[in-house]
C-alpha cells in the first residue's frame, strides 16, 4: 500500500520546554525537583531540539508534511480549556509568548499548526480530519513529554489506523525512568520505536509517495 509520511512535533513551545516560562517559571511552586528540571531541559536542548530540527530539514527537502502541535487556548482567559488543563493550570493564550514555538524548530512558510487544550491531540483537535485530507498514513512523532502528550498522540494515531513511529531520541520526559517506561510500553504495540538516524535511513530506503 502506498504511504504518505508526516512529521508531527508535539508541544515544542515556551510553555513547557524552556526555563523561566510557563511550567518552569517558578521551580519551587512547580512541584518538580530541581534535578528533574535540569535533566529534562538539558535533554530538550541538547538532544530533542537538534534531532527534531534534523528531521524537519529532511522532510522539508523531500517536500513532505511537517506538522506542529502546541497547547494554545481559543480565548485569552482560557475558558475553553479542557478540565484537565484547567486543573493543571496550563494556559497559553492566542499570540502569547507561552504559545510561541521554540525558534529552532518553529514552523516555516505554510506548515500546518494544530492547537489543542488537552493532552490527547486526536481527542482535542481536528488533526485526524486534516491528516485524512492530506492522505497521510505514516506518522512520525516527536516532542514532549514522552509519557504524556507524545504518548497520547501515538496511541490515538495507532487506534485510528496510522502507521506510527515514536522517535526515541527526539522526545523527553521529566525523568529518564518515565521516558524509558513509555518506550517499553509503546514499542511493538502502538508504534515502532526508532532513533532519528533510523527514521531518516528508513525513509531514504523506502520513501513514501509524495
TrEMBL record:
UniProt GO MF annotations: hydrolase activity
Record flagged with keyword Hydrolase: yes
Pfam families in UniProt: Isochorismatase
Keyword Hydrolase among record annotations: yes
Domain Isochorismatase-like residues, every copy: 47-198
Keywords: Hydrolase
InterPro entries reported for this sequence: Isochorismatase-like_dom, Isochorismatase-like_hydrls, Isochorismatase-like_sf
Segments passing through the bilayer: none
Protein name: Nicotinamidase-related amidase
Organism: Pleionea mediterranea
Organism lineage string: Bacteria, Pseudomonadati, Pseudomonadota, Gammaproteobacteria, Oceanospirillales
